[in-house]
Amino acid sequence: MWFQIRARLAYAFAERCETLLLLEAARSPDQAVHSDRLTISPEVEMSHLDDSVSGERRIVFSAHGRVDITYDAQVEVMPRDAGLKGVATAPIPDLPADALRFLRASRYCPSDRFERFVHREFGSLEGGDKVAAILDWIASHMDYTPGVSDAATTALDTFVDRAGVCRDFTHLLITLCRAADIPARAVSAYAWKLKPPDLHAVAEVYLGGRWRLVDPTGLAPIDGLIRVATGLDAADIAFMTIFGQAELISQTFAIRTIRAPKGGSLTTGSHGARDIGA
Amino acid sequence: MWFQIRARLAYAFAERCETLLLLEAARSPDQAVHSDRLTISPEVEMSHLDDSVSGERRIVFSAHGRVDITYDAQVEVMPRDAGLKGVATAPIPDLPADALRFLRASRYCPSDRFERFVHREFGSLEGGDKVAAILDWIASHMDYTPGVSDAATTALDTFVDRAGVCRDFTHLLITLCRAADIPARAVSAYAWKLKPPDLHAVAEVYLGGRWRLVDPTGLAPIDGLIRVATGLDAADIAFMTIFGQAELISQTFAIRTIRAPKGGSLTTGSHGARDIGA
Amino acid sequence: MWFQIRARLAYAFAERCETLLLLEAARSPDQAVHSDRLTISPEVEMSHLDDSVSGERRIVFSAHGRVDITYDAQVEVMPRDAGLKGVATAPIPDLPADALRFLRASRYCPSDRFERFVHREFGSLEGGDKVAAILDWIASHMDYTPGVSDAATTALDTFVDRAGVCRDFTHLLITLCRAADIPARAVSAYAWKLKPPDLHAVAEVYLGGRWRLVDPTGLAPIDGLIRVATGLDAADIAFMTIFGQAELISQTFAIRTIRAPKGGSLTTGSHGARDIGA
Amino acid sequence: MWFQIRARLAYAFAERCETLLLLEAARSPDQAVHSDRLTISPEVEMSHLDDSVSGERRIVFSAHGRVDITYDAQVEVMPRDAGLKGVATAPIPDLPADALRFLRASRYCPSDRFERFVHREFGSLEGGDKVAAILDWIASHMDYTPGVSDAATTALDTFVDRAGVCRDFTHLLITLCRAADIPARAVSAYAWKLKPPDLHAVAEVYLGGRWRLVDPTGLAPIDGLIRVATGLDAADIAFMTIFGQAELISQTFAIRTIRAPKGGSLTTGSHGARDIGA
Fold it and tell me: Which residues of B23-33 are buried (b: 16+ CB within 10 A; e: fewer)?
C-alpha cells in the first residue's frame, strides 16, 4: 500500500538550543520512501545523523524563537504477515547479534522484574503463541486511558496502574516478551486509521527468524504502519529531543492511502503520485 | 603496557540452558589481544556472536551440570590520556551517530530524573571540568560499601543510599553525565591493581572528540584496564547471562603486567611472552 | 494573635458518594477556636468523627451534584517559640507513647532509605541544631517550584528532583528527621501571609520535651499557622477525601489578623470579635 | 484455647544503643494473658511504653554486648469467627474514628496505586465477599517463597514479583483492601501450627462492625493467633527496633496448646497451667 504522510509542527524555543528530530520515514527494508521533504522555517542548518543500518534519519538543528516544521512523504509499505500463532521462538544462538540487546531490560522496560509473572502466566506456551497470549492478557487487563501516565511512567507502573496509552501498552508488551526471553523493541510509526492521526508507538518481536510488528493497543492495522524509528523503548524513539526548553504550539498529522503511480515501484520513484484519500 | 589475564570460573547448571558469555578481552582499537584462549569443560559447542564494530566477543553455549570456564590472555593496552580538565564538550551535531544513544536514560541510569540536580550543582562548568566535578562529588558523597546494593539497584537508588560498589558508582557517574548532555557508557574491564582482582565496572565519557575511560571508584589505574564489553549500563555488559538456573561454585581472576616480547608489537603477535609478575 | 479564617469551596460530584472533610481549625492546646461555622449547601447530613485527643474535627457527608462548602472561624493562636538552636533531642525512653509512631517510615516519608545520608551530612549535630541544619540543607538544595510533583510524589522523589511545593518540602524534612531518630509529623494549617492564601503543609518535630512547628519552605510565619490536622504525612491530613469522583469548581481561602475582643480570652469566647484586616 | 508461648532471642550490640521491644502478648479484648514473664540478661532498666487503648506492651532498654531475651506466657484466645462470605462493608460514617487511618496508604501499602486494579478485578463484589475474592486472588497468583523480598519490599513490589513471605502477603492484602475502601491493618502474632514456629504477620479487616483477623498465607489457623502488635504495616509492628547496630545470634519460638486450668478463666489467672503439647 502507498501512503501520503503530512506532519505540521510548531514550537517556541525560549533560548537557542540544539534539537534532535527523528520524524522522517525510515529507509528500512520493509518500506520504500518514494519521495519526501522536510522543511524547517525559519531556515536552519541541519546536520544529518542517518543510520545506515536501520535506515533511520535523524537531523540536528539549532533554533531560537518560533520554529515551524513540515514533513511530507509518499511511502510504499510492503505487505506484512501479522500472524503469530504457531510461529517458533528463535533459539538464542540463532539470533542476529543485534537482536541480543533487545532481550535486556531498558529504562522503561524493566523486564528483569517480570520473570516470575511471565513464567506463571505464560510458561506453558512458546514463540508466537506466547506473544499472542501476552497480547490477549494486555487487552483484557488494561484500559486505554490518556492522563494516567506521563514521561516517567515505566512498564512496571503501567502493570500496576492497569491503564495507559500506546507508549505504555508498547512498553508493557516489550517488557513481558523480554522477560520470556523473546527479543522485543519499540517502533515509532505513522499510523493509518489511528484516530486522531498521530505518531504511534508499537512493538516488534523477533520470532521465526525475523522481526514482526505488533500493536498491543489494537488501534491501527499493521499494514498501515510507516516506520520512523526503532529502539529499546520510548527513550530511543522520541521524535523530538530538545537540549533546552521549548513549548509546543501546535502539532497535526495526517496519513492517507494513495494510489500507486502507474509503473510505480521501488526502482522508479513516485513523483507522479496523486492523492486519493484515506 | 602488557598484561597477562587469568580467569577461572565454575558454575553448576541445574538444568540444560543457554548461557551468553562476555568474558574475552575485546579486539578494540585501544588494546591489542596478542594471544588468548577460552576453554569450557566439559567441551560444549560454542556459537560466536562477535561484534565487528566494538570488537566485543560473545559466545553462547548450552550446558548442564558442573561447567569449568578458563580464560587466559596476553593483552597490550595502548597509553591513555586520563586528564579531564579543560577538555571541551562535543557539540551534539559533532557526535558520532552511535554516541547519541549514550545520551539517553537506560535501565540503571535514569538520567531524565537528574537534570535539575546536575544543573544546580554543576551548571556553571563545561566539558571535562564538569565531569571532573561530578567525579569529585561522587568521591565525597558516596561510600564504597559492598552489601548495600543488589542486581536491581539503579543510580537513583545509589544517589539516595549514598553507598555501593563499582557498578553503582559507574551507574551514578553515567547518569549524571547524561543528565548534563555528555554521552556516557559502561565498560567492563579486567583491572590491574584492583584488590581483590576482579572484573571491574568503569565508565567512558565522550569529550573532546573521543571516548575517555574514567573510574569513579578511583580503585584502578586507567592504564591498567583491559576492556571486555561496552554498553548502556550493567544490563549490557554482564559477563554471564544464564537463560535458566545456575549456581556459582567459584570464581577467581588474576591480572598481572608482563614484559613485552622483543619486537613485540601489534603486528607481530606475542606467542613468546613470558610472565613477569604484577 | 487572633485570626479570621474564610474558606469557600465548590465541587461537582459526578455520582453520590461519601466525602471526608478535614477543614475545621483543630481544638488543640496551642490554639483556641473562639467561634466557627461550617456550612454545606445544599444541606446534607454530617456525621462528626472528631478526635478528642488531637482536637481534630472530621465530618463525613454524602452528596451528589454541585456542593458549596463554606468555613469561617475566629481563632486565637498561642505564642510559639520557633527557636531550634541548642534544643536537646528527647531520649527514646522519654518520648510520649504517641510520638513513637512518628519515628517510623510512612507512605510519603520512606525515612528508612535515608539513614546513611543523614549520618553523613548531619551526624555530628544533635537535637535542634540538627533540625536547623536539615532546614538549611533543604533551603539551599531545593527549588520551590509548582508542577514538578503530584499526588504520588514521595520524599525520595523530591530528594532526587530537587524541587517541589510545601507538601514536598514537608515530606522531605519529616523523612530526614525520622532518619535521624527525631520524631516528625505533618500538619495542615491555615497560613497567615502565605501568598496566595491557602491551606499550607508544614512539619512538627519533637524536641526538648514538646512538639515544635517548623516551615521548611520558610513562606509563612510560625505564629500565623492555624492548625487543622496532624498526621504521618499528606495521606493523613488531606482536607478532603472523596470515596468516588468529584471535580473542583473553585477554592479560595483568606486568613487575616483581627483585634482580640476586649476581655477576649480562652475562657470568655469571642462572639464580639470584629474584622480588622490583614 | 489456651497457649504456652516461649521465645528465646540473643543479639550482639556493637555499641550501646536504645532498643524498642514489642514482643509481649497484647492485653487486647480478644485474648487474656493469664501469666507472662519477660527477662533481659544481663539485667537492664526497662522503660514501659504500654498503649492502654490497644493493649500493646512496648519496652525500651539500652544495652551493649550480648543480650539474651526470654519471653514466656500463657494466653487464652477467645473463639473467633473467621467467616467472610456475606459480611457487609461498614459505611464510612459508621466507622470508628480510629479505623479511618487504616483506609490510607502507608509505607509498605501504597493503596492509592491500586484503585483501578481493585475496581477492575473485584468491583462487582462487596464486603466480606470482596475480601474473600482478594484472598483467593492472592492464593492463586503468589508464591510463598523466602528470599525474594527484603526489608524495603512494598506491596507494589510484591504485586510485580509475584512472590514473598507472610509480611509481603499481608502487605498485599492490606493494600488491596484499602484500595477498595475497606479498612485493613497489620498484626504480628505468635502463630500456633506455623512451621517453623515464628512470629507471624497477618492482616485484620474491618467488616460488619468489627475487626476480623485473616491470614493471606493460609499457613496458620485464625484461632491459634496470639496478638502482639497492630499497626499500619510492618513499619509499626516490628518486634525489635534497634536505634544503632546489633547482630542476631539466635532466635527460637515455640507455641503450644495447653489445657486450661480447672476453673481457668479470665478472672482467675493461670498459674497452675501445665504444658500438654502442640
Answer: bbbbbbebbbb
In chain B, the percentage of residues whose pLDDT exceeds 90 is 85
Average pLDDT, chain B: 92
Provide, as residue numbers in chain A, all residues whose Cβ is less than 8 Å from the Cβ of B235. Answer: 104-106, 112
Largest CA distance in chain A: 58
Chain D positions touching A160 (Cβ under 8 A) are 113-114, 117, 156, 159-160
Contacts of D152 in chain C (CB under 8 A): 112-113
Whether the CB of A107 is below 8 Å from some CB of chain B: the reply is: yes
Enumerate residues 6+ apart whose C-beta is below 8 A from A137: A121, A122, A176
**Beta strands of D78-198 (E only): which ranges?**
143-144, 163-164, 184-191
- Determine which of C21, C49, C54 to mutate to test the interface with D (most D C-beta atoms within 10 Å): C49
Query: Within an 8 Å CB–CB cutoff, is residue A100 touching chain B?
Result: yes
* Residues B117-138: tens digit of each pLDDT: 999 999 999 999 999 999 999 9
What pLDDT does residue C81 have?
Answer: 85
Q: In this predicted model, what pLDDT tens digit does every residue of D235-255 receive, in sequence order? A: 999 999 999 999 999 999 999
* Contact flag A104-B236 (C-beta cutoff 8 Å): yes
DSSP E strand stretches across chain D: 2-21, 31-41, 47-48, 59-77, 143-144, 163-164, 184-191, 199-207, 210-214, 225-231, 240-242, 246-258
Q: How many CB atoms lie within 10 A of CB C114?
A: 25
Side-chain-facing half-sphere of D261: CA atoms under 13 Å: 17
| Dihedral pair phi/psi, residue C68, rounded to 5° | -110, 130
Q: D interface mutation test: which of C101, C102, C106 has the most D CBs within 10 A? A: C106
What pLDDT was estimated at residue C270?
37
Instruction: Kindly state the helix (H) or strand (E) to which residue D101 belongs, with its residue range.
Output: none
- Dist. CA A201–CA A194, nearest whole Å: 11
- Asked if B278 reaches chain A (Cβ–Cβ under 8 Å), the answer is no
Distance from CA of C239 to the nearest CA of D (A): 13
What count of Cα atoms within 13 Å lies in the side-chain half-sphere of residue D236? 28
End-to-end Cα distance, chain A: 12
Compute the nearest-CA separation of A208 from chain D (Å).
Answer: 29
Give per-residue pLDDT as tens, C10-27.
999 999 999 999 999 999
* Contact: A113, D163; criterion CB under 8 Å: no
Residue ranges in chain D whose pLDDT is less than 70: 263-278
Per-residue pLDDT at C263: 61
- Please determine, for residue A97, whether its predicted confidence score (pLDDT) is greater than 90: no
B60 neighbourhood in chain A, CB within 8 Å: 92-93
C-alpha distances out from residue A23 to A5, A29, A204, C226, D39, Å: 11, 18, 19, 54, 73
Q: Any residues with CB less than 8 A from the CB of C61 and at least 6 apart, and which?
A: C18, C19, C21, C40, C44, C45, C46, C47
Note the pLDDT tens digit of each residue in C194-237. Answer: 999 999 999 999 999 999 999 999 999 999 999 999 999 999 99
Interface of D with A in 141-200 (CB under 8 A): 141, 143, 156, 159-163
Chain A residues whose CB is inside 8 A of the D116 CB are 143, 161-163
Count Cβ atoms below 10 Å from residue D110 Cβ, excluding itself: 24
Give A69's contacts (C-beta < 8 A, 6+ positions apart): A7, A8, A9, A10, A11, A21, A23, A38, A39, A40, A41
C-beta of residue A126 within 8 angstroms of C-beta of residue A137 = no
State yes or no: ipTM above 0.85.
yes
Neighbours of C65 (CB within 10 A): 11
pLDDT score recorded for residue A52: 81
Of the listed ranges A43-52, A240-249, C64-73, C259-268, the one predicted with least confidence: C259-268
